[in-house]
Amino acid sequence: MLDNILILLSLIQPPMNNSRRGLITKAFQKLDKTGDGVVTVDDLKGVYNVSKHKKYLSGEWTEDQCLKEFLDSFDTPDCKDGQVKKKSISHYFYNYYI
Fold first, then answer.
1. CATH number, domain at 62?
2. Residue 62, in any domain of the structure
3. How far, in Å, CA of 86 to CA of 27, rounded?
4. Mean per-residue pLDDT for 35-54?
5. Looking at the domain assignment, is residue 97 inside a domain?
6. How far is the CA of 84 from the CAs of 3, 74, 93, in angstroms?
């Protein structure tokens, strides 16, 4: 049922405007340090600061685990491979931040 609702919403949503698309592109380029079109944990090191992450502060997680969790938030539920392409990030912001 939820899948059908999400499909319906995706069909009636207006396209993303150019300004928003441009901001997503800039953010992706900042995260993709190597410029290969894929953001990985290694790309995020030095770009995304985990020092205030609750599990990092408690010693429960390493920096890599925190960065992986951040990447996973942009990935599709069935494809959490630690690699995120611009399409995944665009899809995330299109669907979750209307």
1. 1.10.238.10
2. yes
3. 10
4. 94
5. no
6. 23, 7, 13
Domain carrying residue 40: 19-89
In the predicted model, what is the mean pLDDT of the chain? 84
Q: What is the pLDDT of residues 6-39, one digit of tens each?
A: 677 667 777 778 888 898 899 899 999 999 999 9
Dihedral of CA 74/80/83/86: which sign? negative
Assigned token pair, 51: 């020092």
Cβ 20 vs Cβ 93: under 8 Å: yes
Supply the pTM of this predicted model: 0.73
pLDDT of 54 over the 90 cut: yes
In a domain, 57, yes or no: yes
Block residue for tokens 């942009």: 74
